[in-house]
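Dock adenosine-5'-diphosphate; give full complex structure.
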Amino acid sequence: MGGVRPNITKHRGEVDRGTRRKALGQKGALVWLTGLSGSGKSTVAFRAERALVERRRATYVLDGDNVRHGLNRDLDFSAEARAENIRRIGEVAKLFVDAEIIVLAAFISPYREDRARVRSLLEPGEFVETYVNAPLSVCEGRDPKGLYRKARAGEVGQFTGISAPYEAPEHPEINLPTDSMDVDACAAEIVAYLEQSGFLAGG
Ligand code: ADP
């Protein structure tokens, strides 16, 4: 895997990024939502997606469930497989960003190093680390998928926060304390960040 692929050359298209951005009226970005299970990543991502579509922006959510059932169905939850999970998602997201789509990626992505690797795939500023930040006790109390109950009963192994680590972002671009900020406010915060950073205009 990786390394130099001598017989594969990159074909350059006829449309450069500036031209595509002008045509679409936006710039691609990867909003990377990280946090414990039940912290609200999917809920916030889908609400932000709706808010962006209402503003006629092209946007798409990549989330744990849709990716793990397809692209990454062969991967388990070991640290190595989690790294590969995040690597593939990063490469897919990079293609979307190249197409100037605003990607909202909702993955626990517990390891700092894995997130940093995705950041390094993109141009400076394009990776927007968003910490969906709720205490374990709150996430466990919500338990929207019943997974904490199963993890406590020993029925699910390598469960982040219980039997596997979570490394919180040190300097996230956006911090969303979902225990004190409602879903609409969290989504609005993401949209405001994108607007202020110039992603919602093409020129
Ligand atoms: P994750 O994708 O991080 O596993 P989910 O979005 O699936 O989490 O579940 C989060 C749960 O928390 C949902 O039931 C949601 O309704 C609830 N919730 C309560 N407050 C918030 C908030 N401010 N932001 C996001 N989710 C919230």
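Observed: DSSP finds eight helices and five strands in the chain.
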